[in-house]
Design goal:
The structure holds two protein chains of two kinds.
Chain A: E1 4-7, E2 10-13, E3 19-25, E4 31-37, E5 43-51, E6 54-57, E7 64-66, E8 76-78, E9 87-94, E10 103-104, E11 108-112
Parallel strand pairs in A: 2-11
Antiparallel strand pairs in A: 1-3, 3-8, 4-5, 4-9, 5-6, 7-8, 9-10, 9-11
Chain B: E1 4-7, E2 10-14, E3 19-25, E4 32-38, E5 45-51, E6 56-59, E7 62-67, E8 72-77, E9 86-93, E10 100-102, E11 106-111
Parallel strand pairs in B: 2-11
Antiparallel strand pairs in B: 1-3, 3-8, 4-5, 4-9, 6-7, 7-8, 9-10, 9-11
The chains are: A mainly beta, B mainly beta.
Chain lengths: 113, 112
């Protein structure tokens, strides 16, 4: 079945550590996105990539980094510069650039020890 | 940038009744408006969407209406069922990069 796989489901980080969240899709989609979800809030865009080897900052990119070396993969690194990293992180993809429906994975919940 | 407001934040209806969730947006250039359903511990699932050249779209018990002049759009669920209980998000997209701006969500509870 085609879809978006996020791993792990739950992740714990110590203060001062970087941590990388995985996102893989087998939908052959060109565009991929990372969102952050906090309780009682909507989703906020961290980074997005419309094509391999290219990505742009979203609304809350500070303290995060991404790479897009392969079409099917868009990992997100939460760096120690992110002061409040505890959140639910969601990855999405769409068929291509432009206004297209986005389809989401089931998220990774990151907590600080 | 775009700002999307969503109301109400919580909604409780009896099984079989209708539910309506409303959103307003600020950017008149926005041209795509999806609605997502999110169940606990899961990612959002696209349930219906509408583009700015259409005023209304229906899919079985779900319908979305768009008023471009007033910059608001609404989700209508008829004959609600317990499995409709979830958090619903509206979103708006403008420009060419598929950037979505989300509302803050509506928790819908369908009671027996």
């Amino acid at each position: 079945d085609g879809g978006i796989t996020q791993s792990p489901k739950y992740l714990f980080r110590k203060e001062g550590q970087n941590v990388t969240l995985s996102c893989e899709q087998n939908l052959n989609h060109d565009a991929m996105y990372w969102y952050r979800q906090d309780p009682g809030q909507g989703l906020r865009l961290i980074y997005y990539s419309q094509i391999v080897n290219d990505f742009q900052k979203g609304d809350i990119a500070e303290g995060y980094s991404v790479s897009r070396e392969k079409k099917e993969s868009f990992p997100l690194t939460v760096t120690s510069a992110q002061k409040n990293p505890t959140a639910f992180y969601l990855c999405a993809s769409s068929i291509g650039p432009g206004v297209q429906p986005q389809h989401f994975g089931d998220g990774t919940r990151l907590s600080i020890l | 940038g775009e700002n999307v407001e969503q109301h109400p934040s919580t909604l409780s209806v009896q099984e079989g009744d209708s539910a309506v969730i409303k959103c307003t947006y600020s950017d008149s250039a926005s041209n795509y408006f999806p609605w997502y359903k999110q169940e606990l511990g899961k990612g959002p699932q696209l349930i219906i969407d509408i583009r700015s050249n259409v005023g209304e779209k229906k899919d079985q018990r779900i319908a979305v209406t768009l008023n471009k002049t007033a910059k608001h759009f609404s989700l209508h669920i008829t004959e609600t069922q317990p499995e409709d209980s979830a958090v619903y998000f509206c979103a708006a997209s403008s420009g060419t990069a598929s950037k979505l701006t989300f509302g803050t969500g509506t928790r819908l509870q369908v009671t027996l």
